[in-house]
Amino acid sequence: MNYRHVFHAGNFADVLKHCVLARLLTYMTGKDKPLRYIDTHAGIGRYDLSGDAAQRTGEARDGLERLKAALAGNAALAGLMEPYLSALKAENAAHPGLYPGSPAIAARILREQDRLILCELHPEDHAVLSANFARDRRVKTFASDGFSSLKAHLPPVERRGLVLIDPAFEERNDLERSRKALADGLRRFAGGVYVLWHRIKDRAETDAFYAGLAALVPSECLALELHVDTIRADGPLSACGLVIVNPPWGTRVECEALLPALATALARGPGAHGVVRDLSRQDA
Q: Of 97, 113, 213, 245, most Cβ neighbours within 10 A?
């Protein structure tokens, strides 16, 4: 519970997570029926990248700032990231100088008939999160452990929804807790879209995680990986992944174009690459 995302806001992992999230939600809002967005580890929703905490680590320099430089004159990359870039622009027009986390990006894309459930266990962060969205009647925040409270929110009354599972990986068992949360969620809400963020520090650990997911997921499941450098167990985070269960139509094709482009834009070293695997077809 000591994790504070403000130290990591706008880094390469955020760029991947928020770019894909924006694309998925944009597609899902193309249908008239309402949907529900559930964020298990919501943080505070918006982050001041000029503040002391963010400046202390400077992770946004290798994420958002590097992306902005790569976008200059690169229409193809900008096109792939359009929903994310539009949400960033709209959010900054209302809140200049702040980086929107997953809750703020989702709130920008979702419609009046949609609902947002935001869970955050850290008491100070939950207080800020609640204040940030106090005027948005679509939003309910919960001072709770997202893993434990997820079952209370599934299935949603709308019968359509996206669940973002985005733990801090502060505890050694967070990867296993993520797998169990996904398994339990699918039992309660089999047709939901699930997005699970995870760090990649150990190849064997990640492959074992994928194998466990492939055994429990009855439908389409994609594993996206973004590497900005060679993985070093004792070094800074240089790779992360997104697992997407029940991805909307066309997600794989779009991500197969997006991931290599992001890897090129955000590369810190020779190990940079992006890849999309289909766990449901056991080609991981």
A: 245
